[in-house]
Amino acid sequence: MPVLSDTLAHYDHERGAPVNDEQLLRYSRQIMLPEIDAEGQLRLAQATVLMIGAGGLGSAASIYLAAGGVGHIILVDFDRVDLSNLQRQILYKDADIGRLKVESGADHLRALNPDVKLTLIERALTQDELMTHAKQVDIIIDGSDNFATRFAVNRASVATGTPLVSAAAIRFEAQISVFNPQDETSPCYRCLYKEDAEVEATCTANGVLAPLLGIAGSIQATEAMKLIMGLGNTLQGRLLLIDVMAMEWHSAILPKDPDCPVCG
Predict the structure, then answer these.
(1) Nearest 5°: CA angle at 108, between 102 and 113?
(2) Which residue among 66, 134, 192, 198 is least crowded, i.e. fewest CB within 10 A of its CB?
(3) How far is it, in rounded angstroms, from Cα 260 to Cα 88?
């Protein structure tokens, strides 16, 4: 097996990706994995992820994406940090109360990994804007907390062929799935929920156990990194259901709806 620095130097020369000794040391525990190696790490460095929502899910997901070496993260959130957020939104601290989440979250991510490029969008995106950004990224991660946003993000994903990693968490339960329009057999989020769904179950209205958001957001980051590097089996076509009260994890088959108005 070649020395890691020699391996990275080879990819640096061949593909023009910036690599130095500090980066080698920072990502060495991932590069040591034969399934990832230097090439997988460079794929992460060259990737762009669109993060919709910088709340509990987005906090955990963005931290692991930045730490893991994803090159460019676009953070989208219009909200400001509130005291009640601090129980679960680990991007923020007490001194951030009142600040825009994307700005205070960016400070945390830059301190964690200064090599990561961050683009901050401090407002809700229109459908056309979602389409534009979705065309320019490798993966979309949906960390929003309402159906309207999730359906809008799903439409942009399907229209642009951009894989979507979606999650939701409430009380003691979470669900995560991957929707990949690049595979014609993959369902989309609309296959799972009808757009006339009326229940808006949110953490604000119903409460949530703090670590649950970390678990679900970390899984979102894992699935996004697997998609970028082409590793393993993702949650495409499956819905991962987590119940932390019973500490049970179940995987349900999620078929494509042939009559789906979005992807059918």
Answers:
(1) 115
(2) 198
(3) 35
